[in-house]
Amino acid sequence: MRKLLAPAFSARRMRRLSGHVADLVARQLDVVEAAGPGADLHELFSFPLPVLVICELLGVPYGDREEFRRWSGDLGLLHDRPRAEAAAQALFAYVRGLIDRKDDEPGEDVLSDFAALGSEPAQREGLARLGAGLLFAGHETTVGRIDTGTVLLLDRPGEWAALAADPERAAGAVEEVLRLAVPSGGNGGIPRYAHADVDIAGVHIPAGDAILLAPGAANRDPRHFDGAAEFDAERSSRNENGHSRKSTHLAFGHGPYFCVGASLARVELTEVFRALPARFPSLRLAVPRTELELRSDVLTGGLRALPVTWDRS
């Protein structure tokens, strides 16, 4: 699967997309500005932006966004399995139809790449499932990071002001957002099964037991990160010899499980946090932080809404 997806997330395609993402960010911020002061940043910015980007990358009509928004929302439900499975099938059928259309209407996009691989039915089925997974994961997770990252930064007014004054800090700030801003939701960890008896920190885990791995805890490990609970856009971590090195969080996983879309997420988030504080340096929550509602009933988590306000310049 990684071999199939490598061209989609190649450095060349990401460079081509980067400038366009900046334009999309600016356009969506125009929408937010026209609606305020006082707007739901989630509805006007955090949701539509990643959808615009993933639609362009995959070759999905943006006009269909409300349909796959509904399917994506249902697919991640944790309390209604039949509804989630029905949504998964609907999303799969939709993407399968798009791949078939790319035979006659190809473009420079992922689904066109898939269509060019062949038309054998079993192959198309597998590619459609892969495409549906990309469509779901390619926007839902980024929406959550924009929302929770914004809240994380607004909780630290000094960081927001620093980004507003110097957008070049955005790349470092994004790494801290990825490290610290866990989107919550129903995914209390990554499920795995012990293949053998394991003893860790005085705890015995018998072979066959299910465990939940918590990357969020690893990303706050004081043995790896100096001032692990603090936000530091210029952070470095320490190796076993005490030497400084680039911070290596686990927001995208590790090794063979490393997220194939990590480069795309970084492109989007960097452009977001370059532009958002610069456009709205006085941005603040419009409700007490305790009133923000987490989507704890869906796999990807995030916020249901993000009411904000700002001062007119």
From TrEMBL:
SUPFAM superfamilies, per database record: Cytochrome P450 (SSF48264)
Keywords from the named record: Heme, Iron, Metal-binding, Monooxygenase, Oxidoreductase
Stretches assigned to coiled coil: none
Gene3D superfamilies named in the record: Cytochrome P450
Cofactors required: heme
Domain of life: Bacteria
Family: Belongs to the cytochrome P450 family.
Name of the protein in its database record: Cytochrome P450
